[in-house]
Design goal:
The protein is α+β, with helices and mostly antiparallel strands and 107 residues long. It has a single domain, classed as Arc Repressor Mutant, subunit A. 64% of the residues lie in helices and 18% in strands. It contains 4 helices and 3 strands; from the N terminus they run αβααββα. Strands 1-3-2 form a 3-stranded antiparallel sheet. Strand 2 and strand 3 form a beta hairpin. Helix 1 crosses helix 4 and helix 2 crosses helix 3.
């Protein structure tokens, strides 16, 4: 597993919560939105996380009809999910700056 893949797996949950916070999405749409930000993640990686986030009550899924095919499951952020996203942001900010300093510090 590449270093990029390992890093992405560690932050993907927070990124998914951030996308769903902006707009309810279905799985494939979520994948496209992440790609739009430069995070290339396969659907096969996203769906297990979505299921886990639902089990943890951070996301709620709702089936809706699609104008172009079968019904789709849209994901919505719950109150607990909003709290988890806030916690993720705090933790991300706490590690982002020190890592940036370490990587870009000139001796």
């Amino acid at each position: 597993m590449s270093i990029r893949t390992q890093l992405l797996k560690g932050i993907l949950e927070g990124c998914i919560l951030a996308v769903v916070d902006r707009q309810a999405v279905y799985g494939y749409e979520l994948s496209l939105k992440l790609q739009g930000y430069g995070l290339f993640v396969s659907e096969g990686s996203i769906y297990p996380i979505l299921l886990r986030l639902q089990k943890e009550k951070l996301l709620e899924g709702q089936m809706k009809s699609s104008p172009t095919g079968p019904n789709r499951k849209y994901y919505y952020l719950t109150k607990a999910g909003a709290k988890a996203l806030d916690d993720f942001k705090v933790n991300w900010e706490a590690i982002k700056q020190p890592v940036e300093q370490l990587l870009h510090k000139e001796d």
